[in-house]
Structure formats: structure tokens, C-alpha cells
């Protein structure tokens, strides 16, 4: 499996990772560990779902998924905070 075989529909996993991390923080996970958990979940999904049988490809795809979920969460959080603080985002 090459990097070009990464299917577009696999990007739908990103919001699922965000949701799982939000659930974990709601259950008591300190927020400072949320990015680490997101990347770990992404790598696990990459190895076992996206590229089962090709560990290096799974790690690469999973890291991309995990880091994307961290960015999605951070962007949404910052936008919501900006709107709450004054209605203007930076």
C-alpha cells in the first residue's frame, strides 16, 4: 500500500477521534494529555483499520489522522472562545 492509497473517506475518522478524546477528557483525562491520546488513537486506527498489514504506512496515516484531530479540536475551541469573548476571531 502506497501513500497514494490513503482513501479520502478515511478522513471521516478525524471527528471520531475528536469525539473519543472529548469523551476521555469528560471522564477525567487531564486536558494536557488530550493531544497525546489523539495521536495514539490515530496511530492505532491507522495500524488496525487504515493499513492493516503495513505497520509503517499505518503509523504514518494514523499520525496524520491524530494530528488532524488535534488541529480540528483546537481550531473549533479557539473559534468558540473568540466568539464568546467578543464575536471576533483572530
Word description of this protein:
There is one protein chain. The termini are far apart. The protein has 3 helices and no strands. The model has no long low-confidence stretch (mean pLDDT 87). The chain has helices at 13-26, 34-50, 55-86. The chain has 90 residues and is an all-alpha fold. The chain crosses the membrane at residues 6-26, 33-51, 57-76. Keywords: Membrane, Transmembrane, Transmembrane helix.
Number of helices: 3
Mean pLDDT: 87
Biggest β-sheet, characterized? none
Q: Let me know the number of strands.
A: 0
Unreliable stretches (pLDDT < 50, length at least 5) are: none
Q: What structural category characterises the helix and strand content?
A: mainly alpha
Query: What would the principal axes of the Cα set say about the shape?
Result: elongated
Strand content: under 5%
Order of helices and strands: HHH
What is the CA–CA distance across the termini?
40 Å
Helix content: over 70%
Q: Report the radius of gyration as a whole number of Å.
A: 15 Å
Protein name: Holin
Organism: Desulfitobacterium hafniense DP7
Keywords: Membrane, Transmembrane, Transmembrane helix
Transmembrane segments: 6-26, 33-51, 57-76
Produce a short descriptive summary.
This protein has about 90 residues and is mainly α. It has helices at about 15-25, 35-50, 55-85.
Amino acid at each position: 500500500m502506497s501513500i497514494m492509497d490513503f482513501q479520502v473517506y478515511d478522513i471521516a475518522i478525524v471527528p471520531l477521534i475528536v469525539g473519543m478524546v472529548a469523551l476521555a477528557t469528560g471522564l477525567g483525562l487531564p486536558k494536557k494529555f488530550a493531544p497525546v491520546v489523539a495521536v495514539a488513537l490515530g496511530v492505532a486506527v491507522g495500524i488496525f483499520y487504515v493499513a492493516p498489514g503495513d505497520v509503517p504506512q499505518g503509523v504514518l496515516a494514523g499520525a496524520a489522522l491524530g494530528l488532524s484531530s488535534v488541529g480540528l479540536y483546537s481550531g473549533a475551541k479557539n473559534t468558540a472562545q473568540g466568539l464568546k469573548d467578543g464575536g471576533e476571531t483572530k
